[in-house]
User: Which sequence fits this backbone?
């Protein structure tokens, strides 16, 4: 598994040489001001807020120590069992997992169609996908609410999976078609000459090459659904259907004196997505530089 | 590739269906509702309203104009700063240095964090009695003062900085991706011609990044215009509606007062403005006409 993760994506740009051979090389003193210092400052800006949350989550109530020692898990117990973050976590996992699967499958199908076929209406379809990026979820709340009410999807996890999928899919599909385009079609054709059907050729030859693409597209669908606040807030008003962002927003309002609990809830909400993101961010950069930015 | 013609249609059919139901149909119905009186709490009044919603919006609703102005201010400040910082960050992490992969993962990580979670983290950080300012004051740096979120003078900068924290990585990722597609020999050629670092940035890097900058700026502007989760949870639109954006106003109309007709009219106004600005922006920036 580790091996597949570190394997460079099929569409990665040619590896840069490990050391750039400049005359000044790495001893260039201007690098400190041009590179190290700004990076350090930006790292502080990024990490201090995360650290602050972690400290609050791990130290006992009333303590102001900057190093959370002795550590306590009391706040996690409060939010997980007391406030119900355990349930919210499960709901978020189901929604984000379901969206991941649906978006991956549909993006693979659509991306393959865009990359490998010429069909009537293709340009219009692509244009519609791009335009959909400019259609704000917030502005669709009212009609979506009515649709959800009519379809009996209010307060269901299924409804949220469908809505998240619909909003994540266009970008995922555009990204995926870029990835498919980068897999040489000759490989597939060779397999078909050897007697494979197109379907078998796809599963045997192309799909394995798309593994990094699926990791990237699936992960970003997961992150998007995990973080979606508005739909979850509007379409799931019963507490047993709350997601983590919704639970957290109530914690902000109602438990704003219990900072330990708030921080612990934040850690629960942050850990899965930040971990997923840390692993896959390079695939995203590779995928974008492979041509998706060019539309 | 020659093939049976139905295959691509079958493959995109589910996507088309989802887009029809969740994107196309809602746009149509927002348009329809905007000409209706449609309030769930007052069903006896419902019916065709003509242009009434729009008349009220334009001439009798100061909060519409106020929220629109704040939305514009929010988008300009937020996107401008994110672009500037994101470009610098992308240039930095595009260099070769020790532990670059780790540095990238760390500085990009807030991008994965939701608006609500961002709010939670920064509320802890901004808290007047246990936050970072209090801590710094204890070390003799600055003074703790009052809550930056409760003070009308500081609530806007505090909100901007909070959104920068998770917004800058978006630009950094988009621009880093494009930076990696610049052929190295362009820089070498420029160096041979005697261009210094700044000159190379202006003549090679920036022109190459242009389309990516235009596109990601537009995407981000639309997203920031429609940003609800962060502002809703951080300030709730207050104090005194000072930080109410147009989408936040729509959500309040729809959810709190169930006024779907008027909320839809606000939505249509938002659409039209967004569309108009986007087209104008693409025209002015001459997107896609790279020479």
Assistant:
């Amino acid at each position: 598994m580790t091996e597949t993760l570190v394997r460079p994506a099929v569409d990665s740009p040619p590896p840069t040489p490990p050391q750039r051979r400049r005359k000044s090389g790495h001893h260039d003193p201007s690098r400190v001001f041009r590179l190290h210092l700004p990076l350090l400052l930006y790292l502080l800006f990024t990490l201090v807020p995360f650290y602050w949350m972690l400290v609050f989550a791990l130290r006992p109530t009333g303590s102001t120590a900057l190093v959370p020692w002795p550590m306590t898990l009391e706040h996690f117990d409060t939010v997980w069992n007391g406030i119900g973050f355990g349930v919210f976590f499960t709901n978020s996992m189901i929604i984000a997992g379901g969206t991941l699967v649906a978006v991956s499958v549909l993006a693979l199908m659509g991306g393959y169609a865009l990359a490998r076929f010429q069909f009537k209406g293709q340009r219009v379809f692509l244009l519609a996908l791009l335009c959909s990026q400019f259609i704000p979820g917030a502005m669709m709340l009212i009609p979506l609410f009515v649709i959800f009410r009519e379809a009996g999807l209010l307060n269901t996890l299924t409804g949220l999976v469908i809505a998240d999928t619909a909003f994540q899919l266009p970008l995922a599909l555009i990204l995926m078609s870029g990835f498919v385009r980068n897999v040489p079609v000759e490989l597939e054709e060779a397999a078909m000459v050897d007697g494979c059907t197109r379907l078998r050729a796809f599963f045997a030859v192309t799909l394995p090459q798309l593994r990094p693409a699926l990791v990237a597209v699936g992960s970003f669908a997961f992150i998007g659904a995990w973080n979606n606040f508005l739909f979850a807030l509007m379409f799931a008003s019963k507490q047993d259907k709350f997601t983590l962002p919704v639970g957290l927003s109530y914690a902000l309002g109602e438990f704003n004196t219990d900072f330990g609990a708030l921080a612990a809830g934040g850690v629960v909400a942050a850990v899965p997505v930040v971990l997923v993101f840390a692993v896959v961010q390079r695939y995203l950069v590779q995928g974008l530089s492979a041509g998706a930015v060019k539309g | 590739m020659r093939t049976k013609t139905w295959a691509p249609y079958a493959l995109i059919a589910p996507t088309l269906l989802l887009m029809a139901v969740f994107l196309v149909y809602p746009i149509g119905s927002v348009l329809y509702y905007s000409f209706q009186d449609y309030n769930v709490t007052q069903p006896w009044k419902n019916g065709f309203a003509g242009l009434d919603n729009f008349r009220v919006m334009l001439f009798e609703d100061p909060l519409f104009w106020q929220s629109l102005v704040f939305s514009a201010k929010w988008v300009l400040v937020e996107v401008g700063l994110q672009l500037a910082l994101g470009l610098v960050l992308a240039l930095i992490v595009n260099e070769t240095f020790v532990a670059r992969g780790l540095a990238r993962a760390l500085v990009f990580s807030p991008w994965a964090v939701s608006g609500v979670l961002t709010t939670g983290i920064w509320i802890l950080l901004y808290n007047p009695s246990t936050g970072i300012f209090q801590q710094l004051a204890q070390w003799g740096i600055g003074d703790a003062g009052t809550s930056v979120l409760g003070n009308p003078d500081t609530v806007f900068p505090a909100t901007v900085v909070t959104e920068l924290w998770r917004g800058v990585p978006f630009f950094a990722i988009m621009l880093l991706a494009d930076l990696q597609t610049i052929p190295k020999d362009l820089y070498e050629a420029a160096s041979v011609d005697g261009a210094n670092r700044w000159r190379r940035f202006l003549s090679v890097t920036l022109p190459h990044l242009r389309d990516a900058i235009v596109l990601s700026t537009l995407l981000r502007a639309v997203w920031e215009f429609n940003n609800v989760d962060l502002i809703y949870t951080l300030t709730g639109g207050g104090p005194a509606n000072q930080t109410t954006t147009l989408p936040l106003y729509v959500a309040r109309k729809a959810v709190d007062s169930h006024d779907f007709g008027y909320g839809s009219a606000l939505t249509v106004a938002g659409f039209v403005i967004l569309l108009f600005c986007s087209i104008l922006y693409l025209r002015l920036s001459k997107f896609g006409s790279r020479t």
